[in-house]
Predict the structure.
Amino acid sequence: MIKFYNPPGIAAPASRYSHGAEAGPGARWLHVSGQVGVAPDGTIVKGIEAQIERAFRNVEAILAAGGMGFDDVVKINTFLLTRDHVPVLRKIRDGFFSRTAPASTLFMVAALAHPDWLVEIEVVAAKG
Amino acid sequence: MIKFYNPPGIAAPASRYSHGAEAGPGARWLHVSGQVGVAPDGTIVKGIEAQIERAFRNVEAILAAGGMGFDDVVKINTFLLTRDHVPVLRKIRDGFFSRTAPASTLFMVAALAHPDWLVEIEVVAAKG
Amino acid sequence: MIKFYNPPGIAAPASRYSHGAEAGPGARWLHVSGQVGVAPDGTIVKGIEAQIERAFRNVEAILAAGGMGFDDVVKINTFLLTRDHVPVLRKIRDGFFSRTAPASTLFMVAALAHPDWLVEIEVVAAKG
C-alpha cells in the first residue's frame, strides 16, 4: 500500500503525479530498467506517441512478471530529447496511472543509447 | 538510522556528501519528486540562488508530510543546466545538510520541463 | 537474494542487464553516489576505458564498506557524454557483472560536474 503526499505548503504538481510517495517496511522493491519504444520482435516503433505507449507496455510486462502493476509504482523517471514531447507524454501517462499518481522526475537528456529512441522510462515499484 | 560510508580506499567526496548511504530492513522509504523553484502560489522564483533555496524548501515540506526531515535523506540527485551553478548549489545544499551528508549524484541535463527552471532536485529518504 | 526479471512478452535486453530486479522486505538498501574516474590520490585518470574501470573500482570499494559486492547490485545508472563510449562501457561492465545482471538505465548527459570527467556511475544495492 503506497502513501502519496501533496502537502498544502507548496504549489500543486504541474501534472498528474504526487510530490512524494512512500512504501512501508514490509515491501519488496522492484527496479525496472529504462524502457524504450522497442516492440517484442526487436523493432523500434515509429513516432513519439507509439514509442511512449510501447515503453509503458514494456514497463507493464516487467511489473506483471513481479506480480505488480501500475498501482504499485512509487516513482517514475522519464527522459525525453525535446520539451515538445512533454504534452503527449503526460496525456499517455495519465492513461496508465488512472487510479494512482506516483512521484515523478522528468528532464531532457543530451542523447539516448540508440539514435532512433525518443524516450526512456524507468520506474521503481513496491508491494507487500 | 542511516549509515554513511566513505571508505579509505578511494578519494574523499568532492564536496559535502557521502560515497554511500544505507538504511535497514525496518525502514519506510519516501521518494520525493523532482522539485523546482516554484513558490507556493505557483510563480517561478527568479535566479539560481532563489530557485535552489525554494526547491530545498519544497523538498523539506514533502519530507515533513511524511514525518521526515533532511537527516533522513539517503540520496539526493541534482540536475542543473550549467556547471557555473555548481558552487552556489553546494553552498546552499550544505546549509540544509548540516548534520548529515547523504549519497549524491549531480549532472547537467539538456533541458528541464519548463524553460525558466534552472534546477531540479529529488531525494530518497528512509526512516524507522 | 535478488530476483531478476526478463519476461517473454518484450524484447530481450540490448546488452547484459535485466529488465527488472527486486529485493525483498528483509533487505538493507545501500545507495552509492555517482562515481567517476578519480584515483585514490585525487587525480583524474586519463581516457574513457581507465575512467570506467576506475569508477567501477570505486563502486566496488563502497559496496565492500557495506559488506556488499556486485552480486548485490539491484540497479545501475550510467551517464556518458557521447554514444561513442557505449560499447567500451558495456565491455567493461560485463566483467564486473559476470554472475548477475542488474536493472540498468543509461543515457548521455549535457555535462558532468568536472570538465575532464567522461563517465559517472551510480548503483543501488540490497542485501539480507
